[in-house]
């Protein structure tokens, strides 16, 4: 049991304590006068009854409540998070069905389609595969941030996906696959607190490459907040060059040079082992994406009703428990009125 305190506790205490002290004092004094013939004043029983009335009214003012559970009271649906890698390596041109291109001696012949094009395709397709859901986009490069808060506007998600670009090359500060972890955890926790009945899916889209020296953090801590989804991997182990990006949309921008040999373009190598590790930590499957194939099978096993049957849709509430105390207060007030009526009748009789 707890108190909802419709009347502020301070007000209740400032009002009830002085009256309570008066009633108790009068009751003790009346008890001391017991047996004295003709002793003036109300008897001790009257004052103890008034003491009880003050206590009960104070409890009513504090509004006691008890916890209650409303079965199926929380709204049920699907919330989808797209965690998108926007680092420079996602511009590597080794994804999809593009015509193979040989860019120089010793460089692999690869499709001239960026990994980020694969991300664009998959985000749009997954949005269509999970209609009527709420969607959020968290993107990361040199830092992470929420690009799109939870919204039921699928058009906004598709518009974002179709216009997303890699980070500006000059501002790159190294790649960390856990860069979005803190932002994602906060977003998932807020969503669970606000809508506990929802089913939460997370799709992590990246090539898994890490160039920063720090040890990446684990996604294990947020696994209890995730009901499904997948880690989607892009790129090849052989690697591919990446074009520089200065904020403009120049398709013929120069390639990022190799730090060891500036005369050659740098190659980015996808790290599927790292992506499988992220998938294991999240408790979702890993899927390598090498072309614009359907994505419906990634959400085919999502059964909202079955997942919500774990009790998450039960809404925890509090029910006021005022009536027993109000009933006692009514009885005490009735007794007080009856005693006052008797006393008044005696006074009139003596006159």
TrEMBL record:
Domain of life: Bacteria
SUPFAM superfamilies per record: vWA-like
Keywords: Membrane, Transmembrane, Transmembrane helix
CDD domains on file: vWFA (cd00198)
Residues forming coiled coils: none
Pfam families recorded: VWA_2
Transmembrane segments: 321-341
Region feature (Disordered): 243-268
InterPro entries per the UniProt record, alphabetical: VWF_A, vWFA_dom_sf
Gene3D superfamilies: von Willebrand factor, type A domain
VWFA domain sequence ranges: 79-282
Annotated PROSITE patterns: VWFA
Protein name: VWA domain-containing protein
Native source species: Cellulomonas wangleii
Species lineage: Bacteria, Bacillati, Actinomycetota, Actinomycetes, Micrococcales
């Amino acid at each position: 049991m707890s108190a909802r305190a419709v009347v502020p506790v301070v007000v209740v205490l400032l009002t009830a304590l002085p009256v309570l002290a008066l009633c108790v004092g009068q009751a003790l004094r009346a008890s001391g006068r017991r047996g004295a013939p003709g002793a003036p004043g109300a008897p001790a029983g009257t004052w103890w009854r008034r003491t009880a009335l003050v206590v009960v009214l104070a409890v009513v003012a504090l509004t006691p409540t008890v916890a209650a559970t409303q079965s199926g009271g929380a709204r049920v649906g699907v919330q989808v998070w797209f965690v998108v890698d926007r680092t420079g390596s996602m511009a590597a041109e080794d994804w999809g069905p593009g015509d193979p291109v040989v860019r120089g001696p010793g460089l692999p012949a690869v499709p001239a389609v960026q990994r980020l094009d694969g991300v664009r395709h998959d985000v749009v397709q997954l949005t269509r595969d999970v209609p009527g859901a709420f969607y959020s986009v968290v993107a990361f490069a040199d830092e992470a941030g929420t690009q799109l808060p939870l919204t039921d506007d699928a058009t906004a998600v598709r518009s974002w996906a179709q216009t997303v670009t890699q980070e500006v090359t000059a501002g790159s500060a190294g790649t960390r696959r856990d860069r979005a972890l803190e932002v994602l955890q906060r977003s998932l926790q807020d969503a669970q607190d606000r809508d506990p009945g929802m089913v939460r899916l997370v799709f992590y889209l990246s090539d898994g490459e890490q160039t920063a020296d720090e040890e990446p953090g684990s996604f294990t801590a947020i696994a209890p907040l995730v009901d499904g989804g997948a880690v989607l991997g892009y790129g090849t182990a052989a690697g591919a060059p990446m074009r520089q990006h200065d904020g403009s949309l120049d398709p013929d921008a120069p390639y990022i040079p190799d730090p060891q040999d500036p005369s050659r373009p740098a190659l980015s190598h996808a790290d599927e082992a790292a992506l499988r590790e992220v998938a294991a930590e999240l408790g979702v499957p890993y899927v390598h994406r090498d072309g614009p194939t359907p994505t419906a099978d990634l959400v085919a096993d999502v059964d909202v009703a079955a997942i919500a049957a774990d009790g998450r849709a039960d809404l925890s509430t509090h029910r006021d428990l005022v009536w027993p105390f109000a009933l006692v207060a009514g009885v005490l007030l009735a007794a007080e009125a009856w005693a006052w009526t008797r006393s008044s009748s005696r006074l009139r009789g003596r006159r």
